[in-house]
Write a structure and sequence with these properties.
The chain is mainly alpha-helical. The chain is built from four helices and no strands.
Length: 164
């Protein structure tokens, strides 16, 4: 059982830590460095690079979500049952849903806007419908990532407090 618990903690750490690193270090660094050299072209390049990094990470997040759910179910079947199991499984499935929506719905729409504007979204007027839509989608993506991180930290907390 301790091996399954360790695998659960490791999966959560990779998923939540990776997402936090992308959001708190990767994206700001890409945009700061590339925009410093060339504000317009650098911003467009940073957006393309971060989009590619995020896309690759999303696939790993989906694997982590499925693995974490399977590990919880396996731990329950083999006993002792992780407490509170229903909350843990619900949080895991919610995190997986957030990752799926972000990767399969939000990210492709963001990419479509970037392609439609040849990556020059920053040069559009602030009231341009495409720029407004991109801002809304970016806020949604950020919100989903934030919810995933908060739920993941909650799961880590539950794991650490569980006496089993």
């Amino acid at each position: 059982m301790s091996l399954l618990r360790f695998a659960s903690i490791l999966t959560l750490a990779f998923w939540v830590g990776g997402l936090a690193a992308l959001a708190l270090v990767g994206a700001p660094t890409l945009f700061d460095v590339l925009e410093a050299g060339d504000p317009a072209a650098g911003r467009a390049l940073a957006g393309r690079l971060f989009g590619a990094m995020f896309d690759r990470f999303q696939h790993l997040a989906w694997i982590c979500g499925g693995l974490l759910a399977a590990l919880l179910i396996l731990r329950t079947a083999l006993g002792p049952r992780p407490r509170p199991f229903a909350i843990r499984l619900s949080l895991t499935l919610a995190m997986l849903a957030f990752a799926l929506v972000s990767g399969l719905v939000v990210a492709p729409r963001i990419e479509a806007i970037r392609r439609n504007t040849s990556g020059a979204v920053a040069s559009l007027a602030d009231d341009d419908a495409r720029k407004v839509a991109l801002g809304r989608l970016h806020r949604l993506s950020t919100g989903l990532a934030g919810l995933t991180i908060v739920a993941g930290v909650g799961l880590l907390w539950m794991e650490m407090k569980d006496p089993h």
